[in-house]
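dumping this here before i forget
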Amino acid sequence: MSSWKARKKYKIPSSTIRKHALYNLNVGAGQQNILSKDQEALIVKMLAMFDDWGFPRTRRETIDLTKKFIREAGSCSKFRTGYPGIEWLRLFLKRWSNELKQRSSTLLERSRAVAKVKKLFV
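structure:
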């Protein structure tokens, strides 16, 4: 496809198309994830279980749980420091935003907490 046709079809300036062709720029390649899709899916499943049980996690707790998972899987060497950082967590949560939601915990009133505990043990 010529740069003129591509410009019309995709509504991109022709100079941008020529620059990409001249310098062999690849758009959208991105960097490969450190963990495989299956490993990340297992982490998501584990984190979702904690949410279902009523234990929302902080960022630090999420990183610590992931660090333990990575240590057990033997993938520590893939991270520069041996465990994931805040930037990895941000991108991980962005990739899995449909499955994981950020929640915060709230204190129950004493009467509601007592009723919940009684219901569990009856």
